[in-house]
């Protein structure tokens, strides 16, 4: 079991962006991570880009299907990887699309890792520990 300690008063909590349009997923992810980081949660690709421009994030959890076929999580990732400021930002896909070659395709598109839905708390915390300590 991965145990992440709460941020010390002298140490700033890592800021993480969560992009997901499903209210239930948002509640679950927030509940799982809010004691180890500062999560900002948005429900659309354009809103994710706005938040990235305003804040310095250490990690992004990105749903693939954001309810908008014209602006999916993959489209947001393309914008991020096209900007030198965000090229090395860890972006973890959170998706139900894990069958067949989907995981390989997402990694080739530039996602750092893939987590499958339903969200597993232990895996989520492992990813946070890996990228933000």
Account of the 3D structure:
With 133 residues, this protein is an alpha/beta fold. The protein has a single domain (15-132), classed as Response regulator (Rossmann fold, 3-Layer(aba) Sandwich). The chain contains five helices and five strands, in the order βαβαβαβαβα. The chain has helices spanning 23-33, 45-54, 73-81, 102-109, 121-132; strands spanning 15-19, 38-42, 59-63, 91-95, 113-116. A five-stranded parallel β-sheet has the order 2-1-3-4-5, sandwiched between helices. Helix 3 (73-81) links the parallel strand 3 (59-63) and strand 4 (91-95). Helix 2 packs parallel to helix 3. The longest helix is centred in the last third of the chain and has 12 residues, at 121-132. The protein is globular, with a radius of gyration of 14 Å. The model is unreliable at 5-10 (pLDDT under 50).
What can be said about this structure in brief?
By secondary structure, the protein is of the alpha/beta class.
The gross shape turns out to be globular
Taking pLDDT < 50 over at least 5 consecutive residues as the criterion, the unreliable ranges are 5-10
CATH topology: Rossmann fold
Question: Beta-strand percentage?
Answer: 15-25%
Count of extended strands: 5
- Rounded mean pLDDT score: 88
The total tally of domains equals: 1
Biggest sheet, spatial arrangement of strands: 2-1-3-4-5
Per CATH, which architecture?
3-Layer(aba) Sandwich
H/E element string?
EHEHEHEHEH
């Amino acid at each position: 079991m991965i145990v992440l300690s709460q941020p010390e008063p002298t140490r700033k909590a890592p800021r993480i962006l969560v992009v997901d349009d499903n209210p239930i997923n948002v509640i679950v992810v927030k509940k799982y991570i809010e004691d180890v980081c500062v999560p900002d949660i948005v429900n659309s690709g354009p809103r994710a880009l706005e938040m990235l421009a305003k804040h310095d994030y250490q990690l992004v959890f990105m749903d693939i299907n954001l309810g908008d076929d014209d602006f999916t999580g993959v489209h947001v990732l393309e914008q991020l990887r096209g900007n030198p400021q965000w090229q090395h930002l860890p972006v973890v896909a959170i998706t139900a699309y894990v069958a067949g070659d989907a995981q390989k395709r997402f990694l080739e598109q530039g996602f750092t890792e893939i987590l499958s839905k339903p969200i597993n708390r232990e895996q989520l915390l492992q990813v946070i520990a890996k990228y933000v300590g």
